[in-house]
Design goal:
It is an enzyme of class 1 (oxidoreductase). This protein is an alpha/beta fold and 393 residues long. 47% of the residues lie in helices and 16% in strands. It has 2 domains: 205 residues, Rossmann fold (3-Layer(aba) Sandwich), CATH 3.40.50; 182 residues, N-(1-d-carboxylethyl)-l-norvaline Dehydrogenase, domain 2 (Orthogonal Bundle), CATH 1.10.1040. It has a 6-stranded parallel β-sheet, with helices on both faces. It binds 1,4-dihydronicotinamide adenine dinucleotide and 6-O-phosphono-beta-D-fructofuranose.
């Protein structure tokens, strides 16, 4: 029997990156999603293209051998597929992991005895996303307690860092996905070592993921979101447009200089190597061939302003170290000012929290920062400023 992968989330990263790599490595891909129109389109379209664009030109990959299942309305079909799959991956967004866990748990529970354990890899922009998913799967609501002791015989979990810019797609593009040429997919290998590491071409298997994910999240995502939030507040359309503004570029460079201090001091990464990495990232996010709207890159501000994320995560640590966080605070302020109410539920929720709470409560609710932390008073000042301006509007 051929190799089978179940991938949750047939969106941009799902179709454009993860499924493309699985397909190129010989897997049949079963997409699990909840969007009916997308599921129908996948099942009615025998192939789609992944189109890489950059200054070096354009390359195309054709993806075949896939189908899609609605994980809400066709749960039992999906449980069958998961019980026989080699691998489950997902790119649904960190807040959705709890919703996909029950069906994965049921599929795992049904795996025939003696089958190689299911390899589970979450591909989200979050530290420890697979661990988070595993916790939901192993929650007593989803897996009976008497099945936990030998759960490792049925499933193994590895965290990953995934990096590729996939902008929102042209509505007329069908299933085709246009994305940047660059990619990085780093996965922990230790959880799989005794049961076999999946043969997925392009994955960099490592023992210790922490430096990779922190470097990625606190450089690519911090820089990208900094450009997007400043760009949004200065009415720029795309991240490329934002970076043409030298004040915004200075903010991005400033923020990445600050996170560089953390990355270099915390991990075994040389300053020169991090400087070169930053330069490469600034070029990537400024790719003129990607029509990447500031609204997409700034999406979900509550998630992006949360404790372990791209702004508060590094800024809180740097503040404790006594390092400057001026530019990170500027970006945080712009994130608090992101008000894309029509398209972004989280920005509405953020505005509600801002209007119903004092600045101290906002900082504790949104950023989970405690009053005894060094960054706390600086965050309170930021929130006060944004609240004062919105009262004037
Ligand atoms: N787009 C990008 O450049 C990158 C995105 N990521 C991460 O990948 C994840 C997905 O991002 P995108 O692909 O851009 O988003 P997207 O919005 O294009 O795709 C998400 C997909 O998940 C589906 N979905 C939502 N709820 C679901 C559920 N309960 N069960 C199954 N499917 C469900 C949606 O219908 C959609 O098709 C996020 O965590 C993001 O941070 C990571 C690196 C790059
Ligand atoms: O949902 P998030 O965290 O914004 O994830 C998407 C981000 O990940 C990146 O692709 C970087 O890998 C950015 O392009 C993009 O903004």
């Amino acid at each position: 029997m051929g190799m089978k992968a179940v991938h949750f989330g047939a969106g941009n990263i799902g179709r454009g990156f993860v499924a493309c790599f699985l397909h190129n490595s010989g897997y049949e891909v079963i997409f699990a999603d909840v969007a009916d129109a997308l599921i129908d389109k996948i099942n009615a379209t025998p192939s789609y293209k992944v189109i890489e664009v950059g200054t070096e030109g354009t390359t195309e990959n054709t993806i075949t051998n896939y189908r899609a299942i609605n994980s809400k309305t066709h749960e039992s079909d999906l449980i069958d597929e998961i019980s026989q799959a080699d691998i489950v991956t997902c790119s649904v967004g960190p807040n959705i992991l709890k919703f996909i866990a029950p069906v994965i748990a049921k599929g795992i529970d049904r795996r025939p005895e003696g089958t190689t354990p299911l390899h589970v890899i979450a591909c989200e922009n979050a530290i420890g996303a697979t661990d988070t998913l595993a916790e939901f799967i192993k929650d007593p609501k989803n897996t009976a307690e008497d099945r936990l002791e030998d759960h490792h015989l049925r499933a193994r979990y590895a965290n990953s860092a995934i990096d590729r810019i996939v902008p929102a797609q042209d509505p007329d593009a069908g299933l085709d996905v246009t994305l940047e040429k660059f990619f990085e997919w780093v996965v922990e290998k230790t959880p799989f070592e005794d049961v076999g590491i999946p043969a997925i071409k392009g994955i960099n298997w490592v023992d210790n993921l922490a430096p990779y994910i922190e470097r990625k999240l606190f450089t690519v995502n911090t820089g990208h979101a900094t450009a997007a939030y400043h760009g949004y507040n200065r009415r720029k359309r795309t991240v490329y447009d934002a970076l043409q503004d030298k004040d915004i570029m200075a903010e991005v460079r400033g923020a990445l200089n600050e996170t560089k201090n953390l990355i270099v001091s915390k991990h075994e990464i040389e300053e020169d190597a991090q400087t070169a990495y930053v330069d490469k990232i600034v070029k990537r996010i400024g790719n003129p061939h990607l029509e990447d709207a500031v609204e997409r890159v700034g999406r979900a501000p509550l998630r992006k302003l949360s404790r372990k994320e791209r702004f508060i995560g590094p800024a809180a640590e740097l503040a404790e170290m006594g390092e400057s966080i001026k530019y990170l605070l500027d970006a945080i302020e712009m994130a608090f000012r992101f008000q894309n109410y029509d398209e972004d539920e989280e920005s509405k929720e953020l505005a509600k929290i801002m209007s119903e709470n004092g600045p101290e409560d906002v900082v504790s609710k949104v950023c989970s920062v405690q009053s005894n932390e060094k960054i706390y008073p600086q965050l309170v000042e930021v929130v006060k400023r944004v609240q004062a301006d919105s009262r004037e509007d």
